[in-house]
Design brief:
Keywords: Membrane, Transmembrane, Transmembrane helix. The protein is of the alpha/beta class and about 300 residues long. The chain has one domain. The protein is built from 11 helices and 9 strands. The strands form 3 sheets. Strands 2-4-8-7-3 form a 5-stranded mixed beta sheet. The protein has a two-stranded antiparallel ribbon with strand order 1-9. The chain has a two-stranded antiparallel ribbon with strand order 5-6. The chain is globular and about 50 Å long. The chain starts with a strand and ends in a 10-residue tail after the last helix. About 15% of the residues have low confidence.
Length: about 300
């Protein structure tokens, strides 16, 4: 994945609170053992911690602050920075994803409302409750923000067996923005009926977000930014393979087999490795969000 060296990055779309001290009590993530179970069952790439039962019960739940925003403002100015630094690359992906949806919604008679991504470390306060890094990346519909501890990208490779790579990280970001798109369209609420299983709405919502990530990937190198040129200039077959590998690595069956030694489809919340790959590729192959109806 290559960015235009001369492109300007929009750091206003990212809030950097890494290293900020979050007041409140001990972060327990749903009482410790519940958080561990959630971790082992792969409740990643989802919506807010309140819906996962992973809110912090240890004290206050402050809103995220942008006090350390200067960190990315100073370091992440151009596409050249995105080609050299992980945090700047994530800023650039956020810009590209939102550029696409900002242009796609009007073509379908709607209006896209941008959502910031919050970089945090350790734990963070959100409108969905306070959460620790153990929750993994998530989207909070309460404040319409994506939350991301960049350390998760290392875990994607070391704990979940993904091949890694820049586009594997981009897939994670694009998936979370898929949830934002669902929230704007009113489909995200379908996941809140409390049911699990391979045919549940929870799984269908996650697979649709995978498909939306693929739709963005299809259009990434042809979506212009404010300068009129695409921010992403090159996506290779190897990049897409990394995205597909990341999608498979966080399939419910793959994670259950890895951590509990057996597969229990009745408890799935995100879909199997094959389902996640298939729906990401469906979006990438067609480039059309209308082909992402996982509820049929």
């Amino acid at each position: 994945m290559q960015f235009d060296d001369d492109a300007d990055l929009d750091t206003s779309e990212v809030q950097d609170v890494r290293g900020s001290r979050i007041p409140g009590g001990r972060a327990t993530v749903g009482g410790g053992i519940a958080g561990l179970i959630a971790l082992l069952l792969g409740l990643f790439f989802g919506v807010g911690p309140d819906q996962l039962g992973l809110t912090d019960d240890g004290g206050d739940e402050p809103a995220a602050s942008s006090s350390s925003l200067a960190q990315v403002q100073q370091s992440c100015r151009t596409g050249k920075d995105a080609n050299a630094r992980e945090d700047c690359r994530t800023v650039a992906v956020v810009n590209s994803v939102q550029d696409y949806w900002r242009q796609e919604f009007p073509r379908r008679g709607g209006r896209y409302a941008p959502a910031p991504t919050v970089f945090f470390s350790g734990r963070v306060g959100t409108a969905c409750g306070a959460a620790s890094s153990a929750v993994g990346p998530f989207y909070c519909p309460g404040d319409r923000k994506v939350y991301l501890d960049l350390g998760f990208f290392d875990e994607l490779r070391t704990k979940f067996g993904s091949s890694g790579g820049p586009f594997a990280q981009a897939y994670v970001v694009a998936h979370e923005y898929g949830h934002h798109v669902q929230n704007l369209m009113g489909t995200l609420s379908r996941s809140q009926d409390g049911r699990t299983g391979e045919n549940s709405n929870a799984v269908r919502v996650e697979l649709q977000a995978d498909c939306y990530a693929g739709v963005w990937a299809h259009n990434a190198t042809r979506t212009p930014d404010e300068s009129g040129k695409p921010l992403i200039t090159k996506l290779t077959d190897a990049d897409i393979r990394d995205g597909l590998d990341a999608a498979a690595a966080v399939g419910d069956d793959r994670i259950q087999q890895r951590y509990q030694g057996r597969v229990t489809p009745e408890s799935w919340t995100h879909g199997s490795a094959k389902q996640r790959q298939d729906w990401f590729y469906q979006g990438f192959r067609t480039g059309d969000m209308a082909q992402c109806n996982t509820f049929r």
